[in-house]
Specification:
Blueprint lengths: L7 H12 L9 E6 L5 E7 L13 H13 L1
Antiparallel strand pairs: 1-2
Length: 73
Amino acid sequence: VHAYEPSPEEIAFAERVVSVCDPIPLQARVDFIWDNEGDLCVSELELIEPELWFRNKEGSAEACVEGVVKRIY
């Protein structure tokens, strides 16, 4: 496992993929590949992630808790 900094194009693609979910998930992981024409394609959409990587972004655990609380109440 290593850190990866997605490009703006990759981020936009992942956001478009997640935007079609109803309801929009609190978190998701979009795995993608490039096809033979160089276009991004979804290889996996992970909505239940066992490793949320909270340690990689300060405040992310708190943001997750806030999102869950908003959904509950």
